[in-house]
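Holo model, 26Q. Inputs:
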Amino acid sequence: MDKKEFKKKFKRRLAEKFAMEVTDASSNELYQTLGSLMTSAYSQDWRETWKDYRENNQKQSYYFSIEFLPGKMLKSNLLNMGWLELVEEGLDELGIQLNDLVEIEPDMALGNGGLGRLASCFMDSIASCGLPGNGNGIRYEYGLFKQRFVDNYQVELPDEWLQKGNLWEVRKESKAVDVQIGGNVYLKPDQYGKLSPVYEGGSKLRAVPYDTGMVGYQNKIVNTMRLWSLEIPPEEEDRYRSIEARRSFEDLTSVLYPDDSNEAGRKMRLTQEYFFVSAGVQSILRYFKSLNQPMDEINQYAAIHINDTHPAMCVAEFMRLLVDEEQMSWERAWDLTRKVMSYTNHTIMAEALEKWSIDMMKNVCPRIYQIIEEIDRRFVEELIGVQDFDLIQRTRIIQDGQVHMAHLAIIGSHSTNGVAKLHSDLLKSVVLHDFYLLYPDRFNNKTNGIAMRRWVQLANPAMSKVLDATIGKTWRKNSDDLRLLLNYEEDDQVLNALAEAKYQNKRSLAAYIKSHCGIEVSPEAIFDVQIKRLHAYKRQLLNLLHIIKLYLDLKENPELPIEPRVFIFGAKAAPSYHYAKSIIKVINEVASLINADETIKGKLKLVFLENYNVSLAERIIPAADVSEQISLASKEASGTSNMKLMLNGAVTIATLDGANVEIRDAVGDDNIAIFGLTEGEVYQYYEKRNYHAIDLYERDTTIQKVVNALIDGTIPNITKEGQEIFDSLIKYNDEFFVLRDFEDYCAAQMSVNQAYQDTRRWRQISLRNTANAGRFSSDRTVQQYADDIWQIEPLFAHNDN
Ligand code: 26Q
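Output:
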């Protein structure tokens, strides 16, 4: 299609859909028109991809994730279709700005953070690598809450993302399945004495899929992300006559649960988990049966991936369908289940490991509980006398009245992986050590990655242009080619061009900050960024204490020779995470104090941007000079914002945690600021129990001064929160070693400050960060999953195109 044809088609579609001309149409109408042109254009490839997979009996992977976080899809679909430039220019000639239409699309935010965003980066990469893989999840009516600040406190508002409809989805009524929830199950012998389950009571829910095309990067492949929505089956209508009955039923898939390890014990959440697991597994089996292949070979057609433990019931549901519905023997079914399933762990925090009470599980999915009981019984039976008794007790699935979902996922699969080298090593040596003793071959690492297309080509067009002009365009397909940039680290023209792109991005972020927060920041200052969920272990508090120190130092000596800096935060706290919300309040109050202080003006600004989400990340990341990756070593499984920031030329200040270790290896020690305890040192403290925060507080006058500022009135309006945070450090012994790492962190910050003063050197460091970020592409990651875990291959027919 050329520009002329596009304009013609666009005007025709607008006339057909709305009976309008361009000049009469609202941005929303124009957005709907463009979207509908796009979906009709790729739906042919979508159908063909689907048909090719079927005709070639292609093995497919199914990525089960309770979260997907794609953000906006308009531009990424345009880019992947190869339409972006053409449409931008064509619209411009019609007097329409593409970016005005982009603003119309709500973020699709069916995820909390890292785990959901990773799932969406994988969807982009799987399609872009031409791999046959699908997503399977829940179509929440409301995405992650919207964050507002009122009196500097976080307030949550519902995210009504579907209000104006959703262009990209297709409701597929013909593919609906029924899911049984609750009731009783007992086993009844048939005429041959075989036991079959008989269900009594409970309710039958209808799961209706909404499919969204996952468009590959200029390769004609369109895969499917299938999200399940709940409806009342016609035959059950009678039972849901009253408003309350209907409401409580429909609420089931209405909200995404905020990441909140402390309040996990919610029956609705468990029902959600079983709902999308059962619907997804049933639909895979139905498709497989339509291929008319021997059931025994299903592992050659399907790979099911369990993204964290939330979909771990896949193991039991797959067993249920094979044994109860397909009359397969337990042994054969178990062998197949293990071959089909694989599992990724995303967390080492013990309190986040998912467990459900037996009672609740019996209540929600009684047959699944029976099957888990049998899996557990056989697990113990097989190991008794072979393995150490205590080890068996520690690794079995059902313990102390609870079902341990990670145990189910490991025992019921052939692969367990972590998401960064350090994390995968810790799984083997500490967190899942007992399982490593039982199944050493199942453990492996798959370091996370990011969708380079979204995080450079779309988010940072200014830098992309410089890259094209310097190293050619091959990096757009093959991110390893970013390495070619290293040939230009002494080339002042290139260094300046990259710096100019950064400066442009900083100016537009500054404008955004001005219009959204009313705060004036200078694009000449260092933009120092910490963007991620608010969690104690991520230590936004450490960042804040350093800012307070700088503020106090500047108050004492306004002439202090520091580079002007703008500290930028973006973070949501789970609504019930009291401590995290207190941190937000205190950061906001410190911001009010600092930003209003004339005496330090120009040297220090603090901005907490409201409602951090994918779209805001796309604005912030290209404008960042410094990337804060300061979690306590051993706590952050991987991190992915660290990769996005590095890719966009930010310099990382980091602990040796998660993927930071691999980022350090990629850029070398001279191009990153590493500080703080190592994971080994942290574990030493745990072992010896010899960390005493109060000693540091009493000995170190700087720490004293800074920590006291939380409670001595230096910062207004934080009487309660200041005390609470003070107590977490001093009275409750600083669980995340903030004070222990404080001095080292300040030194690292000082070195960053110094490096920035040497402009040329800074630009070289920045260039090396971009140049070495290629290995963190999620294309690489999904290819490793495809080769090592899923055993899926691209469709050859499409390779030449
Ligand atoms: C649990 C129970 C009840 C309700 C919600 C939850 C819940 C929801 C989301 C628990 C955990 C999550 C999300 C976890 C997550 O995002 N983990 C991050 O995964 C990234 C991708 O692998 C890593 O880079 C991060 O290090 C890890 O923190």
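Confidence is low (pLDDT under 50) at residues 797-801. The pocket of 26Q is lined by residues 112-115, 118, 257, 259-260, 264, 269, 346-347, 352, 419, 448, 636-640, 658 (CB under 6 Å).
Archived with the compound record.
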